Amino acid sequence: MRKLAANVARLRVQHEFFCTDAAARVSGSSNRSQSSQEHEEKHDFSNNIQQYDIAIVGGGMVGMALACSLASMPLTKHLNVAIIDSNPALGITPATISLFKDVGAWQYVERHRHAYFDKMQVWDYTGLGYTSYNARDINKEVLGCVVENKVLHGSLLSCIENTDFQKTIYPSRLTSMTYIRGLHPRGWTAHHQGQPLSSMRNLAKLELTDGNSLYAKLVVGADGGKSRVRELAGFKTTGWNYSQNAVICTVEHTDGNQCAWQRFLPSGPIALLPMGDNFSNIVWTMNPKESKDRKSMSEDDFVKDVNSALDYGYGPHPKSSLLGNEDMFSWLRGDVRLSANECFEVPPKVVKLASERTVFPLSLMHANDYASKHVVLVGDAAHTVHPLAGQGVNLGFGDAFALSRVIAEGIAVGTDIGEVSLLKKYEWERKLANITMMAILDGFQKAYSVDLGPLNILRAAAFHGAHYISPLKRSIISYASGEQRLPLFS
């Protein structure tokens, strides 16, 4: 022990706090002496060193998806991973289902409540336009699947537990993050398989609210829209609030539902998403005053409002065609698809609430950078979107699986997994997909926030074009399901 203590005393450790005011406050006054810092480091190293390859801050669905993907790949399953979350205890696309199957998590989902849907109907409150999509339009059995958050999270956790993946879960929160350069503690052993740290030169030090400290080559911020990692690492963001809230709840019908329904109303869209049996999820966007009123109103009044919003409320049912005859699109239709011949349908009636009503504000946010030295962002920590098409968590899963693949590629060629040039490959890949989807959803939000006669006609024409023009319809379905990238027409 004396020899070890002597080695620690000779350590020359350089600190670089991540550049934000919050980080500076956590790190303490600049008047603190160097000897005090060295004493703190000696205390850390004289105890059990908690050193990891990757520290995932945020144990939600995206953070767990990353851990599960790392556990499933030969080049990354040996990594030692810390998962930091104070509470470790949605509709998803076919592309996400495929990724879950690849990592062995989907079989858990299929044992719990979930609902595949093979149809989708979208329409406008003016009664001027609608479109319907059918899985058979793209020769598929389903368009997507709606799964409860807790089931998805449980499937990923089960996947990790059923492997030999080395992980440690810290039920805590991140308070500060320090970058340490030039660390050469000879003879010291890491938490990871007794591997000596002599080869580890650059690490991030994380301090937690429970008093624990740990070190990692790579810190992944998967801690949501108010990301502490993003704040401490100094990532700048661009975005705005929508002055809208979403009211979310589960409702019960008299009959089953295998269709996803969405209607655009003057204050925002309402979506009815099947949950299995006779249950569906409601995601209803509205202004803050309306959301406050609808959260506090009686259950009977709320159910009446939901049924009105999904039926004749705000306007009539759409006609079969904008001009009474779909032949105006015949020259673009190509092969006749089943959904183009289907008439408008009315969603199943809601009979009662099956959960509490929750409300949250809506905004758009995008980090200008996803990666820096030894730090990377995924999911809502990197981008938040309008819930218009339920794409937020799917974008996050795309981030998680792309990052795990890039890490594996780096390990294959002997690159430090915290090297910024490696992490930028992940950023370049995901930025295009994320920004494109964000722009589409933001455009829809803005287009449907204006009630103006000429614009209503244009929106109706767009609906009918999407309904009757087969190449366009196939491209929209493939892109929304995550199975096709830009350009939309292939």
Q: Would you give an account of this structure?
A:
It is a single chain. This protein is an alpha+beta fold. It contains 15 helices and 21 strands. Strands 1, 2, 3, 9, 10, 11, 12, 19 and 20 form a nine-stranded mixed sheet that branches. Strands 6, 7, 13, 14, 15, 16, 17, 18 and 21 form a nine-stranded mixed sheet that branches. Strand 11 and strand 12 (213-221) form a beta hairpin. It is elongated.
Number of helices: 15
- Poorly predicted runs of 5 or more residues: 1-17, 19-47, 88-94, 183-200, 322-338, 485-490
Radius of gyration: 26 Å
Strand % is: 25-35%
The coarse silhouette is elongated
Helix share, percent? 25-40%
> Average pLDDT, to the nearest integer?
75
Question: How many beta-strand segments?
Answer: 21
Largest sheet: 9 strands, mixed
Cα separation of the termini:
66 Å
Q: What structural class is derived from the secondary structure elements? A: alpha+beta
Considering the chains and any ligands shown, give keywords for the structure:
elongated; disordered N terminus; nine-stranded mixed beta sheet; 490 residues; alpha+beta
Write the layout of secondary structure elements.
Elements: H1 2-9, E1 14-17, H2 21-27, H3 34-46, E2 51-57, H4 61-72, E3 80-84, E4 91-92, H5 94-102, H6 106-110, E5 114-117, E6 119-124, E7 130-134, E8 144-147, H7 149-161, E9 166-170, E10 174-181, E11 202-208, E12 213-221, H8 228-233, E13 237-253, E14 259-265, E15 268-276, E16 279-286, H9 288-296, H10 299-309, H11 330-333, E17 350-353, E18 358-367, E19 371-372, E20 375-377, E21 383-384, H12 392-412, H13 420-447, H14 453-468, H15 470-480
Parallel strand pairs: 2-3, 2-12, 3-9, 6-14, 12-20
Antiparallel strand pairs: 1-10, 4-8, 5-8, 6-7, 10-11, 11-12, 13-16, 13-17, 13-18, 14-15, 15-16, 18-21, 19-20
Helix pairs in contact: 1-3, 4-7, 4-12, 12-13, 14-15
